[in-house]
Write a structure and sequence with these properties.
Blueprint: H1 2-23, H2 26-46, H3 57-68, H4 82-85, H5 93-126, H6 131-155, H7 164-185, H8 187-204, H9 214-233, H10 251-258, H11 264-275, H12 277-296, H13 300-316, H14 338-363, H15 371-403
Length: 404
């Protein structure tokens, strides 16, 4: 069973490497370099402005370490045919799950240590910590992650399979209680508590005492891999990611706001924008990324340049929506002049671009409410939106109209 897991792990690495080469290309690596550099610079500039014993600092650390325990899931690498072909070897699956637990623990602890190192400068700035406290905090985070993975192993066992919801709740409550004791009482007491919890969790959820629930194990691994494939699908086509059709009632109000009554193409474009996950997804992701960058970058000229750049990038992503329905023969039967279609599309572009620009400008206020930076970005955004809607959009729509 150990050889089986090692072979699957090697095959899993080769699959990830194939997609990593496509995702982390030169352009994306350069973008990440500037993004993390801006975040690190903004973080370093923000820390000196903080004082000791802020009322919210400890609660922020509690929330950070609670969420940090959820990063890094149990990777069993179980496949769908396993319940049939490995059923005679079910008695030896404890050795397989032990290997999977060690592999998942190694990856999870690396991410936990990275997250703890990120929070350490903030903790040292706002709290008076000794070296013993710092070591205790790192041990608490690592032991809490180990207990989290033990609970995950219990969720795919026949003994605890009927209590998955309770175990999932415990995966949040236990790190929360440990983090509260660590930061609100004392790190040493948090270490004592997490050791006691870990001993009990290890006793009840040891792989040697659990019998695998094949359906639960296959479903958990499929869900984990689907989340990985969805991340890769943001950058390249992944055959294993299939679109799901489902109703989105929350979008009805947004469609009504983007639609002009009596204009069928206006309704069609608004609905197409929200239903097309490629266009709406990249617009939402770029908007959130732009808000984060505008929020953390303290340099005024760099912040303004990034705001202008992101607004242009987001606006340019909306243009493929114009000819999205040309392949549908029924849309050509609409008794609507082509000029009205162009006007409806232009109106949608103006509304979406203005909304995106407003969100990014609000985020540029930052933590310290830099109104000067906000005013500069507001003026630049208004000018850019006017230029885009009056010149760029019209030129692009005219070009697309001639091509179609």
């Amino acid at each position: 069973m150990s050889n089986l897991f090692n072979k699957r792990r090697q095959r899993h690495f080769m699959m990830l490497l194939k997609y990593w080469r496509l995702v982390f290309n030169d352009h994306f690596v350069i973008a990440l370099f500037f993004l993390f550099g801006a975040l690190a610079y903004g973080y370093a500039q923000w820390l000196p402005q903080l004082g000791p014993h802020l009322w919210w600092s400890r609660w922020l650390l509690v929330a950070w370490f609670t969420v940090l325990a959820q990063v890094g899931r149990l990777a069993t690498l179980v496949e769908r045919p396993d319940p049939v072909f490995l059923l005679p070897m079910v008695g030896h699956m404890q050795r397989y799950l032990r290997q999977a637990g060690r592999y998942s623990l190694a990856l999870g602890e690396l991410m936990t240590l990275a997250g703890a190192f990120v929070a350490l400068p903030f903790a040292l700035t706002t709290e008076r910590l000794t070296m013993v406290d710092v070591v205790s905090i790192f041990l608490v985070a690592m032991l809490a992650k180990d207990s989290w993975l033990r609970l995950a192993q219990g969720m795919i066992s026949q003994q605890w399979g009927q209590r998955r919801q309770w175990l999932h709740l415990a995966q949040w409550l236990l790190p929360l209680v440990v983090a509260m004791v660590t930061w609100l009482v004392n790190p040493l007491w948090g270490l004592v508590l997490v050791i006691a919890i870990g001993a009990n969790v290890d006793y009840f959820f040891s792989p040697t005492k659990l019998t695998i629930d094949w359906r639960a194990a296959v479903k958990m691994e499929d869900d984990r891999m689907y989340s990985v494939y969805r991340f890769f699908n943001l950058f390249t086509d992944v055959p294993k990611v299939q679109g799901n059709v489902k109703r989105r009632p929350w979008a009805n109000g947004l469609i009504r706001r983007l639609t002009v009554p009596g204009h069928p193409w206006s309704y069609l474009y608004a609905r197409g924008l929200l239903r097309n996950t490629d266009i709406s997804g990249i617009v939402i992701r770029l908007t959130l990324l732009a808000m984060v960058v505008a929020f953390v970058v303290p340099i005024t000229w760099l912040n303004s340049a990034l705001v202008v750049l992101f607004i242009y990038l987001i606006a340019s992503q909306l243009m493929p929506l114009f000819d999205q329905f040309d392949g549908n023969v029924f849309t050509h039967l609409y008794p609507v002049p082509f000029a009205q279609r162009r006007a409806d599309f232009s109106r949608l572009l103006v509304r979406v671009t203005a909304l995106v620009a407003a969100l990014i400008i609000l985020a540029s206020l930052g933590m310290i409410l830099n109104w000067r930076q906000f005013g500069v970005n507001l003026v630049l955004a208004v000018i850019e939106v006017v230029l885009l809607t009056r010149l760029y959009f019209r030129a692009r729509i005219k070009k697309l109209s001639e091509e179609s």
